[in-house]
Amino acid sequence: MTAISEKNHPVEGVLWMLATGLAFVFVNGIVRYLGTALPAAESAFIRFAWGLLFLAPSLMPLVRTGLSPSLFKLFALRGALHTVAVMLWFYAMARITISEVTAIGYLNPIVVTIGAGLLFGEGFRPARMIAIGVAMIGALVVLRPGLRELSPGHLAQLGAAFGFGLSYLVMKRLTQLAPASVVVAVMALSVTIGLAPFAAYVWQPVSLTQVLWLGAVAVFATTGHYCMTRAFACAPMTVTQPVTFLQLVWATALGWSVFGESVDPWVILGGAIILAAVVFLTWRESRGEASKERI
Fold first, then answer.
1. Are the C-beta atoms of 142 and 271 separated by less than 8 Å?
2. Where are the beta strands (DSSP E) in 78-213?
3. Other residues' Cβ atoms within 10 Å of the Cβ of residue 244
4. Cβ pair 139, 104 in contact under 8 A
């Protein structure tokens, strides 16, 4: 009964998701502002070091109990996937428009769906195949290969979307075996460790201002993840997912007003197509779960 009542606050869920979108737009804006002044691996390392500082108390249960070999392998796998994805994301964020990064990022849930079908045996029902196909069309609209040159930034963001998607798949398994707070804290620790050698290899002198800006990135990112968790607790994803389209609108507005980026209607259209596929998939999956509960 508690779970049902928690999911019955759609207005609160929408407001929490609006806050999520704003927080992540601030993350994008700050990283875009810092640009290529620092190597991607170094920027990412400093950001996650800040995050680890915030989340350190959540690691205390692990210090007392330790990790089983199977859990350690899963945490290490997720850390490796997330490390690569984060470096690619920071690289892309400094080189392509904020709206392009946001639109391509909508592919994450589609990657999760493909991975769940291939790795977890969840299968590919017609609705899932339709959603995957439509999302791929949306990605082609955003990238328009053959009609314009694809930059390394575009390819990096595609790689980041796949990396984050695979990381979320591992997280899905981990949340069944460990508390959510521990899963998040260990991710921060493992990614910080994973980024360290890459950051050391390309390390450049960093100013206090840059360190503080990257600390702000950690604050906004942590806030965004908290708000997202609250949104999912208040309302079904079929209610909250469409709100994420505003993140693309805000990202486009930020890029245009602050960084002088042109407004590309194809990117907005492609992002809308990808998000529509995600919303359709979420709606179909929720109907399937509801049918199982009635049975």
1. yes
2. none
3. 23
4. yes
Please give the model's pTM, rounded to 2 decimal places.
0.84
Nearest Cα to Cα of residue 206 among 31, 32, 30, 34: 34
- Give the tokens for residue 260: 């002088």
What pLDDT shows up at residue 4? Answer: 42
User: What single-letter DSSP state applies at residue 148?
Assistant: B
- The continuous run of DSSP H or E covering 107 comes out as none
Q: How far apart are the first and last CA of the chain?
A: 17
Rounded CA gap, 179 and 160, in Å? 26
The residue whose two tokens read 């909508």 is: 106
Checking if the pLDDT of 290 tops 80, the result is no
CA–CA gap between residue 101 and residue 94 (Å, rounded): 10
Closest by alpha carbon to 107, among 228, 274, 292?
A: 274
As beta bridge partners, residue 148 has 145
- CA atoms of 35 and 8, how far apart (whole Å): 42
The 3-state DSSP class for residue 145 equals strand
